[in-house]
Amino acid sequence: TSAPDSSAPAVATPASGAFLDAVRGRATDHVPVWLMRQAGRYLPEYRNLKERHGFWEMCRTPELAAEITLQPLRRFPLDAAIIFNDIVTPLPAMGMEVEFAPEPVLARPLRTRAAIEALRRPDAEEIAPFVAAAIRQVRSAVSVPVIGFAGAPLTIAMYAVQGRGSKDYAEFRGLLRQDPDAARALLGRIADVTADYLRQQVAAGVSAVQLFDSWAGMLSPDDYREFGLPFARRVLAAVADVPRIYLAVGASHLYPLIATLPTEVVSVDWRLPLSRCRPLLPGKVLQGNLDPASLLADRAVVRAHAHEVLRQAGGRPHVFNLGHGVLPSTPPDNVACLVDEVRAYRPEQPPE
Ligand code: CP3
C-alpha cells in the first residue's frame, strides 16, 4: 500500500536527504528521482533562453548556467540538481576547439601522435572556472544536493579523435589498433585533466559526481579493460570524498568489469531490467532505468512503466532515473507525472 511508514520520524526527512541516502546504500522514505538531461531542450523556458544565447555562452556564463540548472527544479520536485554544462567543456582548456551544431564538433580532430603530444595540461583552476561559479550559485539557491559531472576519458577521447558523435567511431577504433600507445597517452592526459576538473567541482560544493561514459558500450570487454577501465578508475579514485555515479550506455556486456570500478552507483540503461543488472553489479546501488521513450506515450503508460521500474528495484536502495537522457520531444507534463508517480511510491514488500 502507499500508507506512510509509521516508523518514519515525526519530522519529515528533508527531500535533500533521499538522494544522498540512496547513493550510500541507505533506506529512504521515498525513492529519490532526478533525470539525465533534466535541463534542456524539452523545456520551453530553456528554448526561450537558447534563442538569445549561444550554447557555449550559456555554459560559460554562471548566471545562465545556474538559471538553466534551476529550471526543471521549479517545475518538478526532483531530489537532485545536475549542473548545466556539457561533457566536452574541459576540451578548450586543453587546446581543442569545440563548436555546438547542436552536438559538439571539433574544428581539428586529433589524428596524430604529434597532435596528442601538443595538448595543453591546464592548471586545475583554468579548466572551467565558470562551472565552479555556477555550482556556488545553484548551491545557494536550492536545498537539494547538486550533482557535478564530467565525461569519462574513453568517451571524451572518442569525441576528440573522431571529431563528432559517430555510429561506429571508426577513426578512434582505428587508432586503438594502429597506435595503442598514442591512444593511451591521450586517455592519460584526459584522465588527469578530468580528475582535476571534478575535484574543482567538489571544492565548489557538489555533493556527488557522475562520470558519463556514454559510448563505452562500443568496445569489446578486452578493449574496455585496456582503454576504458583504468582511466575511468583513475578519475573516480580522485573524487573518493563524494558519492560517485558511473554511466555507460549499451554496455551490459561490460558490467562484470564496471563492477570493479570505485563507484558507489552504476547508472544502467533500459536494455536489461534492474533485476538482471543487479547480479552483474554486486555491491553497487543501481540508478535508472526507465526507457526515455516511455515519456513520449500517454500518462497511463508513463505511470505503468515507472511502476515496473520501481517494482524491479524491489525496495533496495535505488535512484530513479531514465536509462539515458530526456528526449527533446518529451512533454514536460509527462515528466511531472513521472516524478509524482515515483515520489508517491512505497515498496509493497521490504527487501528480504
Ligand atoms: O540536464 C543535464 O543533464 C545537464 C546538462 C548536460 C548537457 N549535456 C547539456 C546539453 C549534460 C549532463 C550533458 C552530457 C552530455 N553531452 C553527454 C553525456 C550524456 C549522454 O547523453 O550520453 C554527451 C554524450 C554530450 C554530448 C552532446 N552535447 C550532444 C550529443 C549534444 C547534442 C544533442 C543532445 O543530446 O542534446 C550536446 C549539446 C547539449 N548538451 C545540449 C544540452 C542541453 C543541447 C544544445 C541545444 O540546446 O541545442
What's the CATH architecture name? Alpha-Beta Barrel
Number of helical segments? 16
Shape: globular
Which class best fits the helix and strand makeup?
A: alpha/beta
CATH class descriptor name: Alpha Beta
Number of DSSP strands? 9
- As residue ranges, the low-confidence spans are 1-15
Main location: cytoplasm
Subcellular location: Cytoplasm
Binding site for substrate: 37-41, 86, 159, 214, 324
Subunit structure: Homodimer.
Structural notes for this entry:
With 352 residues, this protein is an alpha/beta fold. The chain has a single domain (15-344), classed as TIM Barrel (Alpha-Beta Barrel). It has helices at 15-23, 44-52, 55-60, 62-75, 113-117, 124-127, 129-141, 153-162, 170-178, 180-204, 221-227, 229-237, 255-258, 274-277, 299-313, 332-344, and strands at residues 81-82, 98-100, 104-106, 146-151, 208-213, 244-248, 265-267, 285-290, 318-322. Helix 4 (62-75) packs parallel to helix 7 (129-141) and helix 7 runs parallel beside helix 10. It is globular, with a radius of gyration of 20 Å. The two termini are 18 Å apart. The model is unreliable at 1-15 (pLDDT under 50). It binds coproporphyrinogen III. Coproporphyrinogen III (CP3) binds next to loops. Belongs to the uroporphyrinogen decarboxylase family. Substrate binds at residues 37-41, 86, 159, 214, 324. One of its GO terms (molecular function) is uroporphyrinogen decarboxylase activity. This is Uroporphyrinogen decarboxylase.
SSE order and pairing:
Blueprint: H1 15-23, H2 44-52, H3 55-60, H4 62-75, E1 81-82, E2 98-100, E3 104-106, H5 113-117, H6 124-127, H7 129-141, E4 146-151, H8 153-162, H9 170-178, H10 180-204, E5 208-213, H11 221-227, H12 229-237, E6 244-248, H13 255-258, E7 265-267, H14 274-277, E8 285-290, H15 299-313, E9 318-322, H16 332-344
Parallel strand pairs: 1-4, 4-5, 5-6, 6-7, 7-8, 8-9
Antiparallel strand pairs: 2-3
Helix pairs in contact: 4-7, 7-10, 8-9, 8-10, 9-10, 10-12, 15-16
The structure holds coproporphyrinogen III.
Coproporphyrinogen III (CP3) is lined by residues 36-41, 50, 55, 82, 84-87, 100, 102-104, 149, 165, 212, 214, 249, 324-325.
GO cellular component, one term: cytosol
Subcellular location: Cytoplasm
GO molecular function, one term: uroporphyrinogen decarboxylase activity
